[in-house]
């Protein structure tokens, strides 16, 4: 009996220590979110000279006031500050979201053909007017979050919802492949076919990609929260199944990255950040859809993806490697896979209860705070070398067309909410 009582006391003390560690982690996450990430974007990126937000801030902190402005940047700022307002109830965040919303509506929106331009200059003229599906999807994602935050009032919230639904219907009309399923990468300004498909200079010019489908999935998931229409639900279910049946490699549990129309893989590369990000976004989509049978399939796939990333893509210091091309490992560590790893491993822990995943999430956060978060210059470094040394390069800005507050702010908010859920379950 005495031994049993002592064991029980040890278990209780361990639980208390664990809960105290989770409380400390939460405190660090909130501080990083509010005082580093969000503060940086509010204080440094508002473009008072032109409109919206500055197009680029270099890795050395120099603002480039005449840089072109990206659609993804402004959509992600809208999502970030709408979500932050829901999380923190700070009116300043809602004001930032409103600024981003108005910039998208007034400067990026195509008044003739609908949808939004991919890139505009500092004066507001389009410099790339193609309809990149990835970009349209991010606007849907952001608008739905703005609706969830209730915008600036019911009339603007309804306007944002109507616009999000309009964009969803444009994608279904012009980008959807009714024969082979999925969505083409890009279309011309008038939604006609184009040969200019690639998302960026590092992407293949193929008809379909994992990256675009993952973020259409993400967008439709958030839209379904505020617009639970039957047709949208059916398309969301189909997108989940496309990921399970076409995009995830059943032999490796990695995402395949590029495809032709018929879903033939065009690249052997592995992107560890996308794998771990996709693992939890698929779970979120299935949960929002509410299909228990599909949830079971997704949860099994997500666990396998998290295990593959932990085994193959995670360094001993907790950092996540960038990519593997089948022969060579890119062992540098960009900011966004680190953010997604923390959430993905927390999600895997919630699915399985396996301590290895919780430890991996903690190690990811430790790596972020030691090497990636820039508490002196603000925000996060784009990339660090394997040893944690920041890469200072003109090609890797602190803020820009791809360097936005979405991955890291979302990771902090997701982790905060998941830690609270873990604590509630422990109680």
Report on this structure.
The longest helix has 43 residues, at 2-44. The model has no long low-confidence stretch (mean pLDDT 95). This protein is 58% helix and 7% strand. By secondary structure, the chain is mainly alpha-helical. The strands form six sheets. A three-stranded antiparallel beta sheet has the order 3-4-5. The chain has a three-stranded antiparallel beta sheet with strand order 10-11-12. The protein has one domain (24-426): Alpha/alpha barrel (Glycosyltransferase). Strand 1 and strand 2 form a beta hairpin. The protein is built from twelve helices and 14 strands. The protein has helices spanning 2-44, 71-88, 91-108, 133-148, 154-175, 210-226, 230-247, 272-289, 292-312, 335-352, 355-372, 406-426; strands spanning 56-57, 63-64, 69-70, 119-120, 126-128, 131-132, 186-187, 208-209, 258-259, 270-271, 323-324, 329-330, 333-334, 383-384.
Main sheet: strands, sense, barrel? 3 strands, antiparallel
Supply Rg.
Answer: 21 Å
Indicate the overall shape: globular
Helix content: 55-70%
Taking pLDDT < 50 over at least 5 consecutive residues as the criterion, the unreliable ranges are none
- CATH fold description: Glycosyltransferase
Structural class category: mainly alpha
User: Which sequence of SSEs, written as H and E, runs from N to C?
Assistant: HEEEHHEEEHHEEHHEEHHEEEHHEH
Strand content: 5-15%
Write down the domain tally.
Answer: 1
CATH C-level: Mainly Alpha
Distance between the termini: 25 Å
pLDDT averaged residue by residue: 95
The CATH architecture: Alpha/alpha barrel
